[in-house]
Amino acid sequence: TSLTLTGGYNWAPSETASVDLMGGLRSWDIKATAEVPGLARADSNSSFVDPILAARWRQSLAPRWSSLVYADTGGFGVGSRSTWQLLGAVNYAAREDLHVSLGYRHLSVDYRDDGRRLDFSQSGPMLGVTWLFGKGRAAL
């Protein structure tokens, strides 16, 4: 399980595009089990937090429709050695404060601690729901 929280600066170079530069944290809680039935079983649990730097670009496509590209990198040896993520999505604004997204995401992490090593990547389709709140609601 991972949870990413970010905050940062928004710049709108035009009425239809915006760029966000952000910093934040990604929390990890990883549980892994390997088993050979009747012979052996091994369990490994790791929890850690990574600092991250991120950028997000949004582009309005049509009323209620927009595209999004998001990238982040982090770890820097604080929690993991490294982590990074890249995703692209198309968004539909069901309401001003509620967006539904469909896209593709790749997420990678390299974590080592006390002889344990977690080095994995995962890629695949993404379905998301975003709730916007406060004064800074995105108009895209």
Layout of helices and strands:
Elements: E1 2-14, E2 17-36, E3 40-62, E4 65-74, E5 82-95, E6 98-113, E7 116-131
Antiparallel strand pairs: 1-2, 2-3, 3-4, 4-5, 5-6, 6-7
- Low-pLDDT stretches are none
What proportion of the residues is helical, as a percent range?
A: under 10%
Roughly how many Å is the radius of gyration?
A: 18 Å
Strand content: over 45%
Largest sheet: 7 strands, antiparallel
Walkthrough of the structure:
With 140 residues, the protein is mainly β. The chain has one domain. Helix content is 0%, strand content 80%. The protein has a seven-stranded antiparallel sheet, with no helix packed on it. It is elongated, with a radius of gyration of 18 Å. The model has no long low-confidence stretch (mean pLDDT 91).
Key features?
mainly beta, 140 residues, OMP/PagP_B-barrel, seven-stranded antiparallel sheet
Summarize the model shown:
InterPro entries: OMP/PagP_B-barrel. The chain contains no helices and seven strands.
